[in-house]
């Protein structure tokens, strides 16, 4: 036919096809996984990320690192999504999922070099992933998931994180206590646990508050700093002369008239204060202003008032105490009051905080995180957030597996055994999947200064003879042993999710052989 070539795309668009497209995508995906590899495990290092405005984040958390890295390459972005999905679904294991995905891509590249077709790789990987899920089921520990095991789960997820001067052990206790507090018949109400950070003390001072903590201060210095057994009125009312009212024009042509106007205003303000005082509330939360004269009066009456409370704090107070929001002072009655065991106001340097403890309506608790600097509390907040997630996951499913690489060793072993029965080139892909999983124990070894190959050989031998073998870090010591006995455990769901999302992303990237990008 010959003739003119036909353009079906804009001349500006960029197109990469075939092997080139595959290898550039694989390379980008691998690079992302490589970026988080050194942070894995108890001896993982931290990363300092500086954005274009100079804002600094110091973290060990895979999802946070990838998120902050501002990755643009579309295939690389898919690995970032693996970490994000992992974070959303189970709250931990983001680095693990990322490095597995990266290694699945690395193995796929070798297979492509050996002329194994992408669809064969994809089939093999899916088959291996399903064997992996069976292997995880087999690794689930027999012991019932009690507080002791939950503490181990929390501690395993926090080791290597910026837990400051605090032993992970006491933080783990706080985390388990928090999750137990919000446990219901239908599972764990994870949303009822919040984390509030406050700079200024050592992380040892981190504690569990049986209630909520908000950034609010009393409207007047003379008010009580704490009220026990509080009846709380929540108002959407301005307690003062409304600015709108003052605009009304008065024709004042004598001192008497002026005095009368002032008296009228005084008595209006006095009226508000008396209405509030007589309602029987001992704590008042209002979303609007409170006139100084009203504050003074209420302070004298021993009433604690918080003014201009933000809408999210107001909502939290309402859900904790069971108060009903009142829009007009005349409508205020006892039935609308919320209740709490104690409401207190505390000052922390530049910050004022209000604690609402023992709210009558909801079992909310707050992990009140302390730390010397902003970077410390921020990283602690992430570590505790992850620990809360994994403890909730482990408690709900009742399933934990050995950590420290033992589960990955067991999965790889089962896959290799079953691979023997798989025909053709697909067998190569199934075996490659097992090889990719070795990245977890290898990296744990490398990050503790061990030779990764030696460690792998020793771990496989120990797995063969003992059935369970991980590379356990305890202080300065690194030993091979049964992680269940040493208390290094991860929720089974963290491993399940990591395998699933890493497999999905890797197979999706491998299948792409044509990248068309608009300029
Ligand atoms: P991720 O983002 O994947 O959770 P982490 O840096 O939290 O990455 O590392 C998690 C890995 O570290 C898991 O495989 C876990 O079993 C392992 N781990 C936790 N504590 C220990 C320990 N004391 N010794 C060895 N491995 C541990
Ligand atoms: Mg972790």
UniProtKB/TrEMBL annotation:
The answer, when asked if Transmembrane helix is one of the entry's keywords, is no
Name the source's superkingdom: Archaea
Name the Gene Ontology molecular function terms of this record.
Answer: ATP binding; ATP hydrolysis activity; ATP-dependent protein folding chaperone; unfolded protein binding
The stretch of residues making up the signal peptide is none
Q: Which UniProt keywords apply?
A: ATP-binding, Chaperone, Nucleotide-binding
Q: Where is this region: Disordered?
A: 1-25
Task: Give the matching InterPro entries.
Answer: Chaperone_TCP-1, Chaperonin_TCP-1_CS, Cpn60/GroEL/TCP-1, GroEL-like_apical_dom_sf, GROEL-like_equatorial_sf, TCP-1-like_intermed_sf, TCP-1_chaperonin, thermosome_alpha
Q: Return the Gene3D superfamilies for the record.
A: GroEL, GroEL-like equatorial domain, TCP-1-like chaperonin intermediate domain
The family note in this entry says:
Belongs to the TCP-1 chaperonin family.
NCBIfam families in the cross-refs: thermosome_alpha, thermosome_beta
- Which protein, by its recorded name, is this? Chaperonin Cpn60/TCP-1
